[in-house]
Amino acid sequence: ARAMSSAADSAVPRALVYDAPGEPLEALSLRELPALTAPGPGQVQLRYLSSPINPSDINTVQGKYPIMPKLPGGVPGHEGVAEVTAVGPQVTGLSVGDWVVPLAPAQGTWRTAGTYAAADWHAVPRDIGLAAAATIVINPPTALAMLEIFVALQPGDTVAQNGATSAVGEAVIQIARARGIKTINVIRERPDMDAAVARLKGLGADLVTTEHKLKEDLKASGLPAPKLGFNCVGGSAAQAVTSVLADGGTLVTYGGMAMQPVTAGTAAMIFKDISFRGFWLTGRWAAAQGPEGRRKALDAIVALYRSGALTPPPLAPFPL
How many other C-beta atoms lie within 10 A of the C-beta of residue 106? Predict the structure, then answer.
């Protein structure tokens, strides 16, 4: 994953800005923003420390994501960690020096500083580290929610997923391990296959395989058929996970990296009664949870980081 960091003077904020949808390298430009003024009632002033680049951010700039900033002059970025530098009147729960992350999407985190409604931000402890704080809002809550809301999993149950080397995939492995749930992880063939397998095994993966070897390796592993599957790729990778689900199992799609449709096999639906569901964290889930539910989910992720059950993805930082 990539993450932008900022050490600029917050009095003259800068941001990556775009005026019309397009490819990020063509549409984005680095611009100075108006100087910040003192925060008003219910507002906080923030200095960004690190802002990740997620697939949803790229899709936002391309105009392919349902939630977008106002154009022209839009600043992308759904996630990041910032430090509170000033607090306006009528703000409770946040203080100067606090680290905070956004509760609402499309806050425009690809900038050095800004002024926001305090209610849209949640404090996180510094002891989880910058990488964990910067990436806490999207991927770990996605993994946690998908493990909880679709199937009542018990210790010893298994889940299968493709895209296992993604940030969500790695979070699924770690959270499942902490709960005694086994994971079957499908990854694509790659030159560094041994290193990828070793990394996922180190995180707690029980089986790491490819689409073509999935059925054979699962049979040899002795693991039970998974009740739940996660798909972030689509196409044949989604079909592979579907093919090994237990009777009555559920496939949850939360991404489409291959830009290929998810096809529901007739046999899987008729003879195995497989269910096909979708998950969108910043849309339906966030609306259903409300602010307090989203805060509870973030606090649960903080607890996982503090316990050592979860580790952040590796980041490659660069300055804005």
Answer: 19
The CA–CA distances, whole Å, from 201 to 164, 192, 198 equal: 11, 14, 5
Could you tell me the two tokens for 302? Answer: 């903080």
Matching residue, tokens 């580290």: 129
Closest CA to 172 of 195, 153, 147, 148: 147
pLDDT tens, position by position, 126-141: 999 999 999 999 999 9
Write the pLDDT tens digit of every residue in 12-23: 899 999 999 999
Do residues 61 and 27 make contact, with C-beta atoms less than 8 angstroms apart? yes
Active-site residue, selected from the candidate residues 18, 65, 254, 305: 65
Contacts for 227 with CB less than 8 Å, ≥ 6 apart: 151, 153, 157, 158, 159, 245, 246, 248, 249, 250
The rounded distance, in Å, linking the Cα atoms of 162 and 237 is 6
- DSSP annotation of 68: -
Asked if 65 is an active-site residue, the reply is yes
In order, the DSSP letters of 142-168 are HHHHHHHHSS---TT-EEEEE-TTSHH
CB atoms within 10 A of CB 126: 13
CB-based burial of residue 246 (10 Å sphere; 0-12 exposed, 13-18 middle, 19+ buried)?
middle
Give residues with Cβ within 8 angstroms of 54, minimum separation 6.
Answer: 1, 78, 79, 138, 139
